[in-house]
Amino acid sequence: METNVTRMIRFAVPTMAGLLAASGAMAQGSVTLYGIVDQSIRYTTHANASNDASVQLTNGAITNSRWGLKGSEALGGGLKAIFQLESGFEPQNGQLDGALFGRYAYVGLASDWGTVKLGRQATEAFNLFGDLDPLTVGNYTANMWPYFLTQGRASNTVSYDGTFGGLDVGASYGFGGVAGSLGANAYWGTHVSYTLGGLMIGATYQQVRDLNSRAQQAWGAGARYAFGAATLYAGYLGGIDRTGMLDRQLLNAPGRDVSYGSFADNPRRDAIFYTGVSVKVTPAVSVTGVGYYDDIRNVNGVAGNGGKRYTGVLEAEYALSKATQVYATLDYNRVTGGAFTEMPGRGNQTGIAAGLRHLF
User: Fold this and answer.
1) What is the pLDDT of residues 4-44, one digit of tens each?
2) So what's the pLDDT on residue 343?
3) 3-state secondary structure of 339
4) Are the C-beta atoms of 153 and 124 separated by less than 8 Å?
5) Using CA of residue 244, residue 63, residue 282, residue 198, what is the dihedral sign?
6) R_g of the chain computed on alpha carbons
7) How far is the C-alpha of 146 from the C-alpha of 237, rounded, in Å?
8) Cα(260)–Cα(155) distance, integer angstroms
9) Residue 18 CB burial class (10 angstroms; 0-12, 13-18, ≥19)
10) Who contacts 228 (Cβ-Cβ below 8 Å, separation ≥6)?
11) Nearest 5 degrees, angle CA 69-CA 73-CA 79?
12) pLDDT, average across residues 282-303
């Protein structure tokens, strides 16, 4: 017997097909559906306050699972309209990873003179280090914590990016959207990079303000150099946080009982250094290793409360095809001094994972 749901599906499918066909005919553009499904099994030591180990099925180690739509329409004279909508999700349970298009949601215009985009986008620092980090910014907290300083993405943003030969420049501004205040909740950033053969170098600076107009600033520089089968990486990322966001919301272990001071008077200061190498052993096999080091001052807004964090990551990947890879990762984190609150139990944690990634 045909149910209401079946009748709805039989009606919706031809209707949606007709709408898409009509839309394509009017726009004379192109739309691409794309995504990554990346799932891993991860073992972690000292995973809670009792120092118990955990085993979990979780999102991928290197790339967050996502799906999206992007497209363009030629407008003539070398000008084209573009858009992108991208959503992260958790493949182990099917839930959204944040908001429905929380990764990207923008529309823009592109030409030989550059690209202007309006909407939710990556911050300037996140974009730059995505190109200059050996792991292209990992997905576990254990291997991507340095890039919490970049804030990842910003809403209500207008950006410009232009490439002229090997030189790439960009700037963006995020409107705070707070009535009566131009600074509250606002963001701005800029970057510059240069590519010549196998060498890429770049630098960035950005600032994000909270609802009280207190600022979290980040800056940095990095380089990569590809020769033969190897690519070398090195970089620096610094920051000052007067908002408390890094400690309170991002870096401190969930459930950890923390005594906070005044971030306005004693802002957290980070000086992060990293170096790494990626080697294409065979056309199908690649191995990447990276080490991160952070020298921290005024942890948790407490004057003179210093700490350090050390991280090492190894990742090996085997390509079953152009679209499908299997991989294994090993990471080790150690914190000292005031940074002990960034671990749930002891001052160190080891993680081992194996995963499967498919791109479409």
Assistant:
1) 333 333 433 344 344 444 444 445 689 999 999 999 999 99
2) 97
3) helix
4) no
5) negative
6) 22
7) 8
8) 28
9) exposed
10) none
11) 125
12) 98
